[in-house]
Amino acid sequence: VCFAPFVFPKSGASRRFFLGRGGVEVMARLMVRLRAGCGGVTGHAPCCASARAGRCSCGTPPCPCPSTPCRSFGASRTERIGPLLVGADKQKIRFLGHSVSMYQDTAGISAQWMKDRRIDAVQVVLSPFNREARGLIKTAIACDCGVVVRECLANGFLSGAIREDTIFPESSLNARYPREEIAERVGYANELSSAMIGGEIETLVQATYRWVLDQSGVSLALSGAKDLREMEDPVSASSLSPLGPNIHKETESLYKKDFGAA
Questions:
Q1: pTM confidence score
Q2: What is the DSSP string of 39-67?
Q3: How far, CA to CA in Å, does 258 sit from each of 103, 129, 166, 255?
Q4: How are the residues of the chain apportioned to helix, strand and coil, as percentages rounded to the nearest 5?
């Protein structure tokens, strides 16, 4: 089974990640900040992960999941999930979430579902290139819901590998952009690089993931790494110190518009 690698805000708990069909296991000491909500505790690993062991992974008393309601869920799981809770699958469902695409069309749906406690997390696009989801993230904070971030590297434009003269294959999503927009995106990435790289931040990838993880309400960031080498910078960013207030202020001053998501 191939799972997308996760990058979490702070070091702490030991987690497992798997890459590719070969089942390469990567062990990293990372803190999971999904808002489990069980027992009134937030900011810890999802408690249901160790419910069978009789105690929550966050250290609270035995978790009532998965057969009875959690504070995080509001209504009972049977009422909320309905037909999904059949057979053995009911032991596999821990949290429900909504992956937000076409933000302007679907953000309102996610916001209402969070307020109604129908979902526990949202997945949004967020990076220095696209910050439109900040409003929805504020709603997630107010509703004590988790926020999963994708497209942290703006489909490669924040990887440091794309130049103005880069030619994309026809199959690439980036091939749709005219040369003028590619140049604009690369120029903006260069400005961000100058603003964020320094001290313990050595690459634009590290800087970008640190920026994402610094954002209020973010629970975890997804990486589209194809191999272990590409995971190094995202994972290392999770253990670096937050970017300083002056750096965040400068990145805000550089922000003029949202570039379209992939």
A1: 0.69
A2: GG--SSS-GGGGGGGTS-TTSPSPP-TTT
A3: 12, 6, 22, 8
A4: 40, 15, 45
- In this predicted structure, the answer to whether residue 173 has a pLDDT above a threshold of 80 is yes
Using DSSP bridges, classify how beta strands 10-19 and 24-31 pair: parallel, antiparallel or unpaired. Answer: antiparallel
Q: Give the integer Cα–Cα distance in Å for 262 and 257.
A: 16
CA neighbor of 197 nearest in space, from 186, 188, 189, 206: 206
CA angle (101 as vertex; 99, 103 as ends), nearest 5 = 115
Q: At what angle do helices 245-254 and 179-196 cross, to 10 degrees?
A: 160
Give, in degrees to the nearest 5, the angle at Cα 180 between 174 and 182: 30
184-202 confidence digits (pLDDT tens): 999 999 999 999 999 999 9
Give the list of residues 6+ apart from residue 94 with CB closer than 8 angstroms, or none: 46, 48, 49, 65, 66
Please say whether the beta carbons of 168 and 246 come within 8 A: no
**What confidence tens digit (pLDDT) does each residue in 37-92 have?**
332 223 333 322 332 333 333 343 333 333 323 333 334 444 444 444 444 455 56
Distance from the Cα of residue 200 to its chain's centroid: 22
24-49 burial code (b ≥16 CB/10 A, e <16): eeeebebbbbbbbbbbebbebbbbbb
Distance CA 59, CA 226 (A): 34
SS3 97: strand
- Read off the pLDDT of residues 17-44 as tens digits, 9 standing for 90 and up: 333 333 223 322 222 233 333 322 233 3
